Amino acid sequence: MKARPELMMWFRLALSLGMSVKRAKQEIDSHEFCYWMAYYGLEPWGETVADMRHGIAVATLANINRNTEARPEPYLPADFIPWMETNRQKPVEPGPILLDEPDAQTRLIKAAVFGCQPE
Question: Which top-rank group of organisms is this from (predicted)?
Fold first, then answer.
């Protein structure tokens, strides 16, 4: 759904207006919908904005009470919003597996590429 921002906007708008997406599409023409999208661009609403607002308040409170010797860098709003990408553990990219023996390296590559067991 994230690949279709207009669909996300229909859901946001329908939720805000207290109606289904189907009903919203029947009652709102494309001209008005474009204005709603422009308005959302200027003044976003919804749970994402509420989460950001809450993150700002909690970060402020945490920074007021922060031990600057134990944690010199300040807390950010993103530190308190679990769904934000910055909070997710990024997978550690494994480095290349390099073997000393060329034949063993070849078997390992074949196993990785073709899914067969190394000999």
Answer: Bacteria
Neighbours of 104 (CB within 10 A): 12
Stated pTM of the model: 0.54
The Cα–Cα gap between 106 and 103 comes to 5
Give residues with Cβ within 8 angstroms of 110, minimum separation 6: 116, 118
Interatomic CA distance for residues 9 and 5, integer angstroms: 6
Q: Which amino acid is at 31?
A: H
Tens digit of each residue's pLDDT, the chain (119 residues): 778 889 999 999 999 999 999 999 999 999 999 999 999 988 888 888 899 999 999 999 999 999 999 999 999 999 999 887 765 555 666 777 788 888 888 888 877 777 766 55
Taking the mean position of all CA atoms in its chain, how far away is CA 86?
Answer: 8
Side-chain-side CA neighbours of residue 51 (13 Å): 10
